[in-house]
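[09:14] KT: can someone run the structure on this one? pasting the chain below
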Amino acid sequence: MNRLPGDILSVLRFTLDGFVHARAAQAAASVAYYALFSIFPILLVLITVGSFFLEIEQVHQEVVRVVSRTLPVSQGLIVENLQQVIDNRGSVGLLGLLALLWSASSVFTSLVHNVNLAWPDAARRNFLQKRLVGIGMIGVLTILLLLSLGVDLFTSRFSWMRGGWGLEVFVEQSFFWEVVSLLSPWALMFLFFSGLYRWVPSSQVTWRAALWSAFSAATIWTIAVRLFSWYGNDVTRFSTVYGSLSALVALMLLVYLFCLITLLGAHLASAVDRHRGHPSDRPGRSTAASLTI
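[09:31] RB: done, structure tokens below
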């Protein structure tokens, strides 16, 4: 059974061993903590940088749309507070943008460090290197946001298409548009995870490992969002315990799940490469001890 699908059971075992011994669940909780302080600086950076190329209202609407798709719970909390922050801050100058970049990169700095721990042979970056990589990830997110906005602008110019027998069909009502709407969030996450697993670790990662892990992480995250939207959109489920903090708790839980899936994908990529290169190299206790230093 293990040999037929390409030793997939061994790879999964190596993945779970490395995930547990590296204490990735606790690491995901720490990244989620940093994310709480970085969410609004990240969104402000995206809006500020995007406004250099497009109208700020268009960028703001696109950021809200992406947030609604990526974080389906507590979107009212994020959108309302984001609008209030924008109204209070007004325009952001160069120094303000640099300060926002530094604050926003905190969560990515922690994420880069913990993703890198999935590779035992990876060189450890210093504080400045991790911070620069975190800022670079914000730049990638900005590019993905502008790409998504460009696709929306392109499709809005062609809001209808001519179907068979001379019939005019609105794109929004077509099967093609439904497929694009369903796959576009998954595709953006797949691109993000692919770059994360391929270039962020300070170790050689093959495209095979990066793409398989990105595919798995993006798929698991999409399913998790669907399930959370079905169960967690009703904030009253949390309000019975957390009261007025229920929206914030739901948001933190979803961010924690995202960090957990991200780190699981990193350990999967590491397991794929190590299994193909050194099948006998298993993440034992001695390896785990070096990971947590």
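[09:33] KT: thanks! The longest strand covers residues 160-162.
[09:34] RB: yep, looked fine to me
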